Fold this sequence. Notes:
Elements: E1 4-11, H1 21-31, E2 37-43, H2 53-63, E3 67-72, H3 82-94, E4 98-101, E5 106-107, H4 111-144, E6 157-164, E7 167-174, H5 176-189, H6 196-205, H7 219-227, H8 236-244, E8 248-249, E9 261-265, E10 281-285, H9 293-308, E11 323-325, E12 332-339, E13 342-349, H10 350-353, E14 365-366, H11 367-384, H12 391-420, H13 429-463, H14 465-476, H15 483-493, E15 494-499, E16 504-508
Helix pairs in contact: 3-4, 11-14, 12-13
Amino acid sequence: MNKKIAIYARKSVFREDSISIESQIEMCGYEARGQEYLVYQDNGYSGKNTDRPDFQRMVTDIKAGLISKVIVYKLDRVSRSVLDFSGLMDTFQKYKVDFVSATEHFDTSSPMGRAMLNICVVFAQLERETIQQRVIDAYASRSKKGFYMGGKIPYGFRKVPVVIDGVKTSMYEQEPDEAADISLIYELYSKPSATLGDVLRELTARGLNTNRRGKHWNTARLSELMRNPIYTTNDISIYEFFKAQGSNLINPPEQFDGVTSQYLFSGTNTNRKTWDLSGQNVVIAPHRGFIEPEMWLACRKKLLANHQVKTCKAKNSFLSGKIKCGNCGYAIVVRFSQRSKGHVRYFIDTGWTENHCCTHKLPTIHADDFEAVIIDRIREKLSELTIRSDSSAKDEMLETINQIEAKITGLEREIENLVDKMLLSDTDKATAKYINNRIAKLDSEKSELSHEADKLKADRLKKNDTDYKVLHNVMDKWNELSFDDKRSVAELLIEKILVFPDKIEIRWKI
Length: 510
């Protein structure tokens, strides 16, 4: 393909006295040195971002492999944003496109030009870090003042504008119908013998299995709702509860006067499920709660006690956590039934029985029979695989896999930090947009790395016949294995098992 030179020119509507589009093209034409070139021009567009029609058309042509070099009159014709410019330079490098500024002697095909590029990247990194620190500082400052910090509006409330200390922000206000649902849920669960399952069944019996926002109630959603202190008023009993849990209380006890409510947000503890309250920050919020502190504390302590007794996962099946309904995607879990011969294990679809959102009821699945089928499938899968031996390559793969998984862990930590520090978009749109774009980019990188790691794990397993010999031996002595060993085999080989009314589909890792 015969690549061409691109000349890009831009003039802003805000600078009528700036150099014309025609003059820019003429100046850039000298740098083309008589070679054929394409012209891209945006007249009347600001340089604050790259959202310009001809600029985007040029980028599309670059990605299509049509452009070898881009020439501009000055750097600011491309963008006045260092972040945008740095991103564009990444694109140029990826598609092997040189960049020339006609008046600033900036040419990436030369050593000096590449040095200038590196300087731009350094400034871009500085700007990123400055934005991140500004987000962290602003988040901490705003949250400690009780300002609305964005995010999904909790069920039972709506958002209304308000001015706090001369600053325009937002606060919550009761949504009467939703608040009535919340009050009913607390009332049902506050009964000493009630479980989350009991509450869910009662809501279903009353025709309330779906909330007023179209979401199905489930035990996880109910639990999350009743852990949130946003629904109760902030008297001294609430203060003492969070103090005993090791939370950071931003306001002094005398301000917990039983009038307004409180926010709970991440502090030194980033446990997003808010079971462990140590290190979490509690700050008085301007809205009024509608659940009495006594009832909220009764439900919250009950949930906390129930969580603390769950010291490990139930060992009901070596396939636990792997089996999903093929229709609704909800977990299929083990339940027990008392029969004349003793307890009988069987699998049930929680999407059908508990969340009431599955449209296809699965037949009765006896756990022993189902596990036997999966064991036979594992044996069949192992017999299909080609056995090869290459230990050195396998060890190199393991090192690469470990490096990739370390990168994935770092990306997950950065994504979580960005989510925690997210500011309300309408208070600082530029920062919110940057964070959202950054999160999307990190998530994409994480997905690519995860896919690469999974492929390497599968290839590594195929590289050495020892793994298969061991697995074949394991399957021959299956009944002698401990529960944990059986779980390890399932974890090594199976990603997940999808169950449909008429078939079983296994997603393998190998």
